[in-house]
């Protein structure tokens, strides 16, 4: 069974429902058909850093951007190393 994916807007609206309108987590869980633990995690994530809450769909956290940049750099360096190794093997062979 594949995990359900929710848009950032859906998560924000769910958090607003709980925090601003005063709907209980259990009631919101029933209304939205989302497990209570998932809703509590969303509320926690939003509360800790609202500006960067729910990254995805083009919005990555700074740490994720850095990891992606470093992975690209590692791949590039590995390719350069492979090329250098092939060149040195060819030169050594004569």
TrEMBL record:
Domain of life: Bacteria
Signal peptide: none
UniProt keyword terms in alphabetical order: Coiled coil
Entry-linked InterPro entries: Homeodomain-like_sf (IPR009057), RD_transcriptional_regulator (IPR051839), Transposase_8 (IPR002514)
GO molecular function terms attached to this record: DNA binding; transposase activity
Residue runs in coiled coils: 60-87
Biological processes, Gene Ontology terms: DNA transposition
PANTHER family on file: PROTEIN DISTAL ANTENNA (PTHR33215:SF13)
Protein name, UniProt field: Transposase
Source organism of the structure: Sphingobium subterraneum
Source lineage: Bacteria, Pseudomonadati, Pseudomonadota, Alphaproteobacteria, Sphingomonadales
């Amino acid at each position: 069974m594949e995990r359900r994916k929710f848009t950032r807007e859906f998560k924000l609206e769910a958090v607003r429902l709980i925090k601003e309108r005063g709907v209980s987590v259990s009631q919101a869980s029933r209304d939205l058909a989302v497990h209570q633990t998932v809703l509590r995690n969303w509320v926690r994530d939003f509360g800790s850093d609202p500006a960067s809450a729910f990254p995805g769909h083009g919005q990555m956290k700074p740490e994720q951007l850095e990891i992606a940049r470093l992975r690209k750099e590692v791949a590039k360096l590995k390719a350069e190393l492979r090329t250098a190794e092939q060149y040195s093997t060819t030169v050594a062979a004569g």
